[in-house]
Amino acid sequence: MSALEGLGKSLGDAVKRLLRLPIVDEKAIKELVKDLQRILLAADVNVNLVLEISKRVEERSLNEVLPPGISRRDHVIKVLYEEITRFLGDKPAKLTLEPAKTTTIMLVGIQGSGKTTSTVKLARFYQKRGLKIAIICADTFRPGAFEQLKQLADRVNITTFGVKGETNPEKIARQGLEVFRKEDFDVIIVDTAGRHKNEKDLMEEMRRLSDAIKPDEIMLVIDGTIGQQASTQAAAFNQITPIGSIYLTKIDGSAKGGGALSAVAATGSKIKFIGTGEKIEDIEQFVPANFVGRLMGMGDIQALVDRVKEAALNLPKGKTKEILSGRFTLKDMYNQMEAIRKMGPLKKIWSMIPGGYNLPEDMADVAEKRLDSWRFIIQSMCKQEIENPKIIDSSRTRRIARGSGRSEKEVKELLSQYATMKRMLKSMKRQHSKLMRRLPFSA
Ligand SMILES: Nc1nc2c(ncn2[C@@H]2O[C@H](COP(=O)(O)OP(=O)(O)OP(=O)(O)O)[C@@H](O)[C@H]2O)c(=O)[nH]1
Ligand SMILES: [Mg+2]
Question: Which of 184, 221, 320, 364 has CB atoms 3.0–4.6 Å from 346's, for a disulfide?
């Protein structure tokens, strides 16, 4: 199994385990954090990074106050997602393309890092987006370099330029640019010769060629199978060129892909693309948020995260505390149900989470179907009845039903729902007094 599959599978499994637990408490969170550490270390992520991220996940999961209607479970998943995304880079790097201008991108990297393959993959990536692409082979070192490139590029119908027998790469590159600029290409990609394993030489040669052709962007191709060591190349490159970005290849190739990705991200370099296989189509624009969402096996985690954030804006200050201190009236129940309904159908939120967890479906259904009727009923109660529904006997039930235009059965339903919730709340408080700062709707 490749790095991505391995990392993704184990993260996905950890998330699924969490989703299956009946209750997400301190113990469950600690176990998740342990899982996370094991998974990241197995993916060759630097041990300090692992400690940092797991500490943040644990602290935030245990201490942050839950927005109304949001379960501890959802919240933990959101925290996990945000923290992993954060350490791979918050924002995706922008593509350099400017419409109405020819963009030149030069690929550099040590021998065998994947430059030639990546050049064609990148060309294909832009071609699929409707752009007119050409490739220049400025590798005069590797025997048969131009043939290798042309063969690949021909398969996807991409124009190439090379000069057999010419030994000066700068000269070829300039010639090629001259030809292609006349022809109105959107993107010109320049493949270069494999440099030595020595980073200094690589940077030096890169500077020379880039002086000659003045590209809009220089992309450093790094072999992802070297794991954490990728950071040395990325850091050196980052210092030298402000127009540099990173293309991390062979992410599929070993267990070290996670290490390479995180180590390069930690240098502050812009990872723009990743290579995920040997085929021309195996290229992916690196968008940390999507990438992590997929790793965690969530259908649409961004939507879930947005919901949790939105609900946080509606958190009534002090109210949650008050409820947990034992005061939970009919009115509180009504308000909480309304908060759930405002968030949109709970079922939909749950359906975004594959993993076989059973939604306490009645709650959501009840909130959706009964709220209007409950409002009328509660409005027909006097203050004492709302504060202390125990005093509602059968004659009061009859009166409330008549006053609200609802049936006695519905009034009784409301009261029994309330009693159930109050009971759940109490038992939860006993079991998880520290952790559960929330109502029981989606426990
Ligand atoms: N699995 C996998 N293999 C890759 C990927 N990218 C490149 N390769 C393989 O890596 C090997 C080297 O690729 P090249 O594109 O020739 O590397 P290069 O940097 O141009 O090599 P030189 O020109 O000799 O410096 C080839 O066998 C490619 O198929 C990738 O993303 N995944
Ligand atoms: Mg090559």
Answer: 364
Question: Could you read off the pLDDT of 115-172 as tens digits, one per residue?
Answer: 999 999 999 999 988 899 999 999 988 889 999 999 999 999 999 999 988 989 999 9
Distance (Å, rounded) from C-alpha 345 to C-alpha 297? Answer: 22
For residue 68 and ligand 1, the question of a CB distance below 6 A is answered with no
Answer yes or no: is the C-beta of 111 below 6 A from any ligand 1 atom: yes
User: 250 CB under 6 A from ligand 1?
Assistant: yes
Strands (E), 213-254: 217-223, 244-249
Q: Is the CB of 109 inside a 6 Å radius of any atom of ligand 1?
A: yes
| Whole-number percent of the chain with pLDDT over 70 | 80
Residue 20 has pLDDT above 90, yes or no: no
Is 104 a pocket residue for ligand 1 (Cβ < 6 Å)?
no
**Residue with structure tokens 């200050």?**
317
Q: Which domains does the chain have, with CATH numbers?
A: 1-91 (1.20.120.140), 103-286 (3.40.50.300), 316-443 (1.10.260.30)
Nearest CA to ligand 1 atom 3: 278
pTM > 0.85? no
Helix (H) or strand (E) holding 262: helix 257-266
What percentage of the chain carries pLDDT values higher than 90? 37
With the C-alpha atoms ordered 96, 99, 103, 109, is the resulting torsion angle positive or negative? positive
Nearest CA to ligand 1 atom 6: 114
Atom of ligand 1 nearest to the CA of 191: 20
Residue 116 Cβ inside 6 Å of ligand 1? The answer reads yes
Alpha-carbon distances, residue 226 vs 44, 146, 217, 233, 250 (angstroms): 10, 27, 24, 11, 10
pLDDT tens digits, one per residue of 78-124? 899 899 988 888 788 888 787 778 999 999 999 999 999 999 999 99
Question: Which atom of ligand 1 is least distant from the CA of 109?
Answer: 19
